[in-house]
Automatic annotation (TrEMBL), chain A:
Its cofactor is K(+). Keywords: Isomerase, Metal-binding, Mitochondrion, NAD, NADP, Nucleotide-binding, Potassium, Secreted, Signal, Transit peptide. It is an enzyme of class 5 (isomerase). SUPFAM superfamilies: YjeF N-terminal domain-like (SSF64153). The keyword Repeat does not apply. InterPro entries: YjeF_N_dom, YjeF_N_dom_sf, YJEFN_prot_NAXE-like. Binds 1 potassium ion per subunit. It is found in: Mitochondrion; Secreted. This is NAD(P)H-hydrate epimerase.
From TrEMBL, chain B:
GO terms for molecular function: NAD(P)HX epimerase activity. It comes from Gopherus agassizii. This is ApoA-I-binding protein 2. GO terms for cellular component: mitochondrion. Residues 23-234 form the YjeF N-terminal domain. InterPro entries: YjeF_N_dom (IPR004443), YjeF_N_dom_sf (IPR036652), YJEFN_prot_NAXE-like (IPR032976). Pfam families: YjeF_N (PF03853).
Length: 290, 246
């Protein structure tokens, strides 16, 4: 530590826009942080029973407003770009899927996955996820009926197309057809901004997804669900990948696998919103919640 | 998958080492044909570089009491990749410090700087020339100064002095893509000797002159058609990893 103090003493540390400006020259080690960071393998975790009940020590389930506020802050205060965070989010989704549904677990070979992308950022997450699934050895197909004319989404679409990921022009009309062709469906239709009525073609798509027997993995929010209250009549996914932090709807999730992904929330932001996120294992970009 | 490996996983065809022109052509194709965004690529590479660092220097293995890492960033893309690498190391609970003497005016790269600042990653105002200070304060140095786009033989200040300092330090150096100060193809026998080289997407020709302990390939996103077109013969990445040891 003495070397670092020497650097501090020489007034070498400069950090604008950060709380450390006050610390420099004060002899305090700038690398001291809030609660001590755990080192790996220490088996430090919160008790699993605390997870589902958002008590004092449990992970926080966000309201729609909080989710939107955190998102806004990541972009306006922290200056993350949508491109960056979407890439990390999509990678988390693909990694979680590969963990729960490895290619060897598929009855068909090659392991075919259908990704249904909605008209907003959740759809973008789906496109990134599709691309990474391809790199992991899956055979993804995408259905992307409503595409925003923004460079970000056009770019992500091109990346997938140029990687020979087929884009279905029509959604399979019957659940049985989906069960026949694919071993898994990824629901990337609606995310945490969803409000109000489901517009076509997504109403029909979701009704079909309610009937499929192959597992459905939802990105962030099971599509069609109220972001806070859930939906007993809607799709019942087998997997939910909550991005950043789980939303209140996740409390109604009854599937087998709940993962947390999107490992990019700065510690200060976590503290500001009292997210109480459990520690991610080592360098993993996903964390399985009980 | 079209990865050319036998059942036992051995390479049939040897890994290709790229010339500067080929490396630039690949990047051009990714940006113009595949419509990857530059920020997207930098994020992918920075994240993968951080993963590579953690493979060689896992947190519990670091000799110093604090898991400090010095990240030296140059003015162009390689530096931006270093900033993203630093940020991910911070997420992984390392304690990076950045030295970024000439900040890029490019607004894309400015945001990367802000992200690091807002995550409480300190920025040094100058690099001590007293090598022992660096040896004492940090466990590892990440060299993110110059990449493929560096003009050979035209390294200017402050980088000549920085590289002279790095030549003398005794802690390991991890170079991102190209050891800074090396010619992309010919290397540099007078230059720095990194302990670890993290080749981004595919190794460059100078990597054949790399004598350090670990060489990683990082960034698992290259479309198979690009790999085939440039005959890269990349090895298989294990599981869902984004880095592979060469």
């Amino acid at each position: 530590m003495s070397g670092l103090r020497a650097l501090l003493g020489l007034g070498l540390l400069v950090s604008s826009g950060s709380r450390l400006v006050a610390a420099a020259g004060g002899g305090r080690c700038p690398v001291q942080r809030g609660p001590p960071a755990g080192i790996w393998g220490a088996g430090r975790g919160r008790s699993s029973s605390a997870m589902q009940n958002p008590g004092r020590s449990g992970v926080k389930y966000l309201s729609q407003e909080e989710a939107q506020a955190i998102d806004q802050e990541l972009f306006t205060e922290y200056k993350f770009s949508v491109d960056q965070l979407m890439e990390l989010a999509g990678l988390s989704c693909a990694t979680a899927i590969a963990k729960a549904y490895p290619p060897s677990s598929f009855t068909k070979s090659p392991p075919a996955v259908l990704i249904v992308c909605g008209p907003g950022n959740n759809g973008g997450d789906g496109l990134v996820c599709a691309r990474h699934l391809k790199m992991f050895g899956y055979e993804p197909s995408v259905h992307y009926p409503k595409r925003p004319s923004k460079a970000l989404f056009e770019g992500l679409t091109t990346q997938c197309q140029k990687m020979d990921i087929p884009f279905l022009s029509e959604f399979p009309s019957e659940a049985m057809l989906i069960d026949e062709l694919y071993g898994l469906v990824v629901d990337a239709i609606f995310g945490f901004s969803f409000k109000g009525a489901v517009r076509e073609p997504f109403g029909s798509i979701l009704r079909t997804l309610e009937q499929v027997t192959v597992p459905v993995a939802s990105i962030d929010i099971p599509s069609g669900w109220d972001v806070e209250k859930g939906s007993p009549d809607g799709i019942q996914p087998d997997m939910l990948i909550s991005l950043t932090a789980p939303k209140k709807a996740a409390q109604h999730f009854a599937g087998r696998y709940h993962f947390l992904g999107g490992r990019f929330v700065p510690r200060a932001l976590q503290q500001k919103y009292s997210l109480n996120l459990p520690p991610y294992p080592e360098t993993d970009c996903i964390l399985q919640l009980p | 998958m079209s990865c050319p490996a036998t059942q036992s996983g051995e390479q049939i065809e040897p890994l290709r080492y790229l010339s500067r022109l080929e490396a630039e052509a690949i990047e051009k194709e990714l940006l113009e044909d595949y419509k990857f965004g530059r920020q997207q690529l930098i994020e992918i590479w920075g994240h993968a570089s951080a993963m590579a660092v953690t493979k060689v220097f896992p947190l519990p293995s670091l000799p110093r009491k604090q898991p400090t890492v010095l990240v030296v960033c140059g003015p162009h893309q390689n530096g931006a990749i270093g900033l993203v690498c630093a940020r991910h190391l911070r997420v992984f609970e390392y304690e990076p410090t950045i030295f970024y003497p000439k900040r890029s005016p490019n607004s894309l790269y400015r945001d990367f700087t802000t992200q690091c600042e807002k995550m409480d990653i300190p920025f040094l105002s100058y690099l001590p020339t007293e090598v022992q200070l660096i040896n004492d304060a940090y466990n590892v140095v990440i060299d993110a100064i110059l990449g493929v786009d560096a003009e050979p033989g035209e390294v200017k200040e402050p980088y000549t002095s920085i590289l002279a300092t790095l030549k003398q330090i005794q802690i390991p150096i991890v170079s991102l893509d190209v050891p800074s100060g090396w010619d992309v193809e010919m290397g540099n026998s007078e230059g720095i000797s990194p302990d670890v080289l993290v080749s981004l997407a595919a190794p460059k020709q100078c990597a054949t002159r790399f004598l350090g302990r670990h060489h990683f390939l990082a960034g698992r996103f290259l479309p198979y058609d690009v790999q085939k077109k440039f005959e890269l013969n990349l090895p298989e990445y294990p599981g869902t990893e984004c880095v592979v040891s060469l």
